[in-house]
Each structure stands twice: as structure tokens, then as C-alpha cells.
């Protein structure tokens, strides 16, 4: 049967080789083993259930969370010559019945169903009328309350499946599951641990970058100019921001579209189609855009604001480079955006326990912007996996010299200690900088030996230092909205003078006027270099390189 699988891969999809994990999952499914497959976004999960669907008798039901995308998914299959259809609330009763009839006559191999529909009589009818060989649960992290996109209708799937007169093989698929979420999915669906296929989370064609301390509009426009004609997504955290950025791009004649929950569905869909068919190159969107969208040539995903957590970030950023070619995943970081995400959590109707968890997740996302370890590794570690330095993220490429900051670190840590490890970072910063704040007085912190110990440093820098020490795990914040700083074992060693700390220091940003003529030249050079050295353009135009090139270039020359 595996030969058959390979043959289908070549004949129907036109691919030579299976990607990592695909064959293993397909083999499991063909053997009738319930499985959980974790593969990165763009890793090729769909084929894992589509190929078995073609081999098995009867039909495969695919649970997919977004109604708006089912049509696209089905159209894509139809184009490949695979008979498929979908059942969801957009259909009239008559259409629904027609499709059910055709499905029970075996006219389709795959039937996409919204999770809400899965509980209904139609499904039980279908199960009786025709053999359902496999139930594929796409975006399976929605099952888990500990996931980042919990949906009650997904949880009730598990219940419904128990009531079927026979048990089809279950295949759960997701790209973003922390160890807690994976084990929750295994447990809820009764999947055995040995049928858990995890291809790892590394996306080696993505160059992760964090951009800090730069004017974001300027950065964005510069980036788009250099990468003119390339397809990409810009994520913003509010509808208002999407509108603003969209207008900015339009005013610069950049072929951009927009997508957010406040727009009419028809308008949204129109932009989406235009983006998918490359009529526009840039999509400005909230996180409402993108789930399940399979556009292979997305060359960059830029987050104009920090998203709510690492799962969301990785899923959104992962929409770049599905074709495996080098692509950029850029976060434009500004510290106050973290507050927006805290605010969203505060306003949500989650219970306190979940809120606490979400605050912590926001913070872990924010630390991504402060860490100096490989960005790919930071993410992969978050998902509980091992990782080798990627060599292409902005941290790996950061050539600034690492300075010894052991003394400053000791100052911060001993201050935290003297304050009893019962305060948050802003209070620690105030004490260190010798602030006259009422609260400092109230707690009599003026009497501490660490009071004012770092008064030569601006408050902002001390805050950044604390963020850095937290990201590098010398300090660990407690859960919740107002976390208290605790010293880790790693931090304790530094306090005792048993280990040292280094940090690549921020340089003063060079303000460089980048005019159009310079950019035209840069583009020419990029073309030249790309053909000469076969170096992917994104490497040459890393942020720092670009700025250096601009400085090297005589600005008066024609
Ligand atoms: P996921 O659902 O895991 O995010 P998809 O199933 O949508 O990913 O696949 C992502 C892209 O990879 C699609 O364009 C798909 O055609 C392509 N793809 C999948 N499997 C292979 C393969 N074995 N070889 C080459 N391309 C593949
Ligand atoms: Mg998918
Ligand atoms: Zn790296």
C-alpha cells in the first residue's frame, strides 16, 4: 500500500518525495492506527489524510474549523481530480440533502465538515449509509483547553465519536501544540503515545528577525520597496491598525489588500482571492486571516505588533515559505504593544485560571523580543523540542561583540533578593535607579543598599536589562498579570560569583536617509549579487547590512 501512496503522490500531486513525517503518518493511518501528527505550518499535513482517503474504500471526513475556507480546500481537490465536497451552514437544506445523497452513493472521497455540524443527524446518517474509514481532525489543538484556540465544538467531537456504531480511524493534525496540549489531545482522543508523530518544529527556510527601536512605518515601507513584487502578509493587532497600514500602503501605490473581522464577508473574500491569485502582493490583516490558507509563495510575514502568544506567532509566521524557499518572518517590536495583549486578556471572558495562563503566554512572547539566543531555537524550545542554532535569524547574525555584564547583573539580582523576591520589574527598576516614587518610600526601599545603585543608567535601559535577564532565565516571573520576579538557579550562580553573564549591547541607531535612488541601486546590486553568488537576497539585505550599504553609498552620486 505504501507503493500505492508514493505513486499517488507523484501522479496526483506531482511531488517526487514525501516530506518528513508524511509517510510515517500515512502508514499509521493505512494500518488503522489512531494517530496524532504534529508538523509545522506548511509541512504538508493535508496529504497525510488525502492520500489514505484515495486508497481506502468509503469516505474520509475532514473536520476543519473555518467554514470560509472549506470551499477553497474542496476546489483545490477538485482541480487535482479528487472528488470532494463540504457540509456546513452556508448550504441550503436542499443542497445539503443532495450532497448527503451523493456522499452516501460514494461519489466523494473526502467530505469536509465544520465541527458544529459533526454533532448533527446528518453525520450519523452518513455513517450508516457509507463506510467512513477515517476522521481527520485538522487544527486539532482546538480540542484542548490549554491550546491557544480552544473551541468547545471541537471538544464535543471526542464525545460524539464515542456514540458512533463503528469507530473510523482517527487522525488528529496540528502545527502548534505545546507538550501539555499534545498530551491533552492524545488523552481526549484515546490515541496511543506510540502513534504520536512529531516531525519537530524547526522551519529551516525561515529567517526570523526581531526589529527593535526603529520607526515602524519607515521600516515597513523600506522593506516593501526592496522586496517589491514579493508576496507577503502584514499582521496588525487591531482592525483600526489594519485600516491605517492599508491606507499607508495604498498611498504609496503598493498593491495591498486588507482583511479583518469588521469587514463585510464579500469584501474580505474578494481581497483574499486577489491575494491568493497574486493580483495583489501584500495582505494587511488581523489574525482573522490565514488559517488553512495554502498560498505557497508567501515570501515574508511581518508582524507590525506583537501577537498574543508564541503559538499564534509561529502559526502566522509559518505561513511564509510553504514552498520551502527562503522567506522572512519579522517581528516589529515595540514594548507598549505588550500592554495591548495584556488588555485583550483582561477584557476577555476567560476564567481567572485561564487568564493567568494567557498573561504568562503574552510574557513569553514578549521575551522573544528580548532574548539573544537563536530565535528559531527560542520557539522550538517553547514547544519542548531540541534545536540547533539556525545561523540565519537576527540573533544568529548579530555580529556585535558580547560584553561582560556580570557586575550589572549582580546589582539587579541582589536588589531583587533584598526586596524579598516579592516585587515586579518596574518596582525593582525604580529602586535601582533611586526613584522618589511614593511606593518606594512606602516600602522603605530607600534604606536598601541597592537603592540608587544604577542611577547612572536611564530607567528604560534598566528595564531592558531586567527584560534581558528574564529572557535569558536569570530571573523568572511568577504567573499572572502582575508577576513578581524570582531568582533562578542560574541567577543564583551569578550572585555567588560562580558564573558570568554577557550581552550584545544595543548600539546607537544610525539614522540614514534612504531615498529612492539609493534603493534602486540597492535593488540592482541585489540582483547582481544573487546571480553572481547564488546568495539568497534576504541574506544580503539583512537589516544591518542594508544600513551599512546605505552608509557606504555616496549619496550625491547619480
Ligand atoms: P499544512 O496543512 O501542514 O500547513 P499543507 O498540507 O497545506 O500544509 O501543505 C503545504 C504545501 O506543501 C502545499 O503547497 C503542498 O502542496 C506542499 N506539499 C505537501 N507535501 C509535499 C511534498 N511531499 N513535496 C512537495 N510539496 C509538498
Ligand atoms: Mg493545513
Ligand atoms: Zn538563529
UniProtKB/TrEMBL annotation:
Documented EC number(s): 5.6.2.4
Task: Family membership, please give it.
Answer: Belongs to the helicase family. RecQ subfamily.
Q: Which GO terms describe its molecular function?
A: 3'-5' DNA helicase activity; ATP binding; DNA binding; four-way junction helicase activity; hydrolase activity; metal ion binding
Spell out the CDD domains in the cross-references.
Answer: DEXHc_RecQ, SF2_C_RecQ
Q: Where is the Helicase C-terminal domain?
A: 219-363
- Assigned GO CC terms: bacterial nucleoid; cytoplasm; replisome
Q: What protein is this chain from?
A: DNA helicase RecQ
Name its species.
Answer: Carnobacterium iners
